[in-house]
Amino acid sequence: MMELKDKRILVVGLGKSGLASAIFLRKKGAQVTVSDLRSVEALAKELPALLDIGVMVEAGGHGLLTFRRQDWIVVSPGVPLDTLELVQARGFGTPVIGELELASRFLQGKILAITGSNGKTTTTALCGEIFRASGQATQVGGNIGVPVISLVPASTPESWNVLEVSSFQLETIVEFHPNIAVILNITPDHLDRHGTMQNYVAAKERIFENQTAKDFLVLNAEDTESQAMAAKTKAGVFWFSTRRPVRQGSFVYQDAVVWRVSEQAAAEPVLPLSEIPLKGEHNVENVLAAVCSAKLAGISNDVIRKAVGAFRAVEHRLEFVARLGGVEFYNDSKATNVDATMKAIGAFPGGIHLILGGKDKNSDYTLLAPLLKERVRAVYTIGAAAEKIESQITGTVDVIRCQTLERAVDQAASEAKSGEIVLLAPACSSFDQFENYEHRGQCFKQYVLARQGVDAWQNVSA
């Protein structure tokens, strides 16, 4: 554990993890300062809790002297590491870590860490349900919404900590060491932050850099980066695949999810595919990864089968919202990159009215063209990326610029016919018009349900 008492520690960025880190550090006796680019007015909700416990607050910008007078700097995931003040602080020898690394120094119990370009939240939530169903003390947190540092007080040596971890969080680890690490897939994402695909992959690979031969790494046998990763790790490698048997791990065989503990062992059935309640082949992959993780943790097939069967889609991930006039509305606001949008489109046979747009992440939208031609009736663009999207998908389907999400919902609802789908799967981040993807998804649901009134909430479970 780090010695924190009387240490001068700066927390950069006051998102969820930054706020939780500052409070944790202060309670441990550190002299804590927080620095955020936002104004005092914008931080009005966060400031009272910090000032009441003696945390110093720098708002409206970063001061170079603030960064030079610290023993440690804890940076929030949303703050780029090439920020000038952080670069200079590292140049002076000040250690810079993230909230994930800070929490890992104090977190008790075992860690299951899950990353990937898509599917992290669904797989993390599903693993949490399976582990809890097994009777083991289980906490779920990380990029899924609960800061890892918030899990520390309740953790015990017997706990399982199931964590969703992002490339932004992994950039700043030093000793973070999961007992089981899962990399679901790697496709282009966050290139506006990482710069190159090589840098993005390198950030994801850090999830296993501190693992040993006693640990496990779960990889997607159909992902192009996985073979290279398997050659780099010291951990025992297990695989999952929807398309073929694997040497050891989980795969689909004769319409069932099966598990094989080693190349010499026989495959054992875990559950029929028909009992997976989630739409899309990508969610079968998520279930396979969860099954692999659960078996490595010693959980029985019966427990896994029951937990998977009872699981429901996580909010904002292909979430059914309502059926209005025979048209079904689905919220996949978490589809913040092109690959996620392709998976969302692929979950439906056709008749899709697709809402695209938001803040561009240096993405290539031409990759959507084959699926747009095959399954999409029309595209409704919103946000800052609208013009780029339109230029890259021109000639594939009808494109209607709507600017705002509310107009897109209204336009798509008026165009869609009974039996068709209105799908929010924007392929972009949300930060041009919304606080985050959750806010965007909530607004989408509000706009949809407003078309029928408050009684439409009853359709959510229809």
Write up what this structure looks like:
- This protein is an alpha/beta fold.
- It folds into 3 domains: 8-94, NAD(P)-binding Rossmann-like Domain (Rossmann fold), CATH 3.40.50; 101-310, UDP-N-acetylmuramoyl-L-alanine:D-glutamate ligase (3-Layer(aba) Sandwich), CATH 3.40.1190; 319-461, Protein-Tyrosine Phosphatase, Chain A (Alpha-Beta Complex).
- It has 17 helices and 20 strands.
- Strands 7-8-6-9-10-11-12-13-14 form a 9-stranded mixed beta sheet, with helices on both faces.
> Would you identify the CATH H-level superfamily of the largest domain?
Mur-like, catalytic domain
Proportion in β-strands:
15-25%
User: How many domains in all?
Assistant: 3
Q: How many β-strand stretches?
A: 20
Which of globular, elongated, flat, extended, rod-shaped describes the shape?
globular
Q: Indicate the CATH architecture of the largest domain.
A: 3-Layer(aba) Sandwich
Q: Per CATH, what is the topology of the largest domain? A: UDP-N-acetylmuramoyl-L-alanine:D-glutamate ligase
What is the spatial order of strands in the main beta sheet? 7-8-6-9-10-11-12-13-14
Write down the Rg.
23 Å
**Helix/strand/pairing class, anyone?**
alpha/beta
In CATH, what is the class of the largest domain? Alpha Beta
| Main beta sheet strand tally, sense and closure | 9 strands, mixed
The number of helices is 17
Averaged pLDDT, please?
A: 93
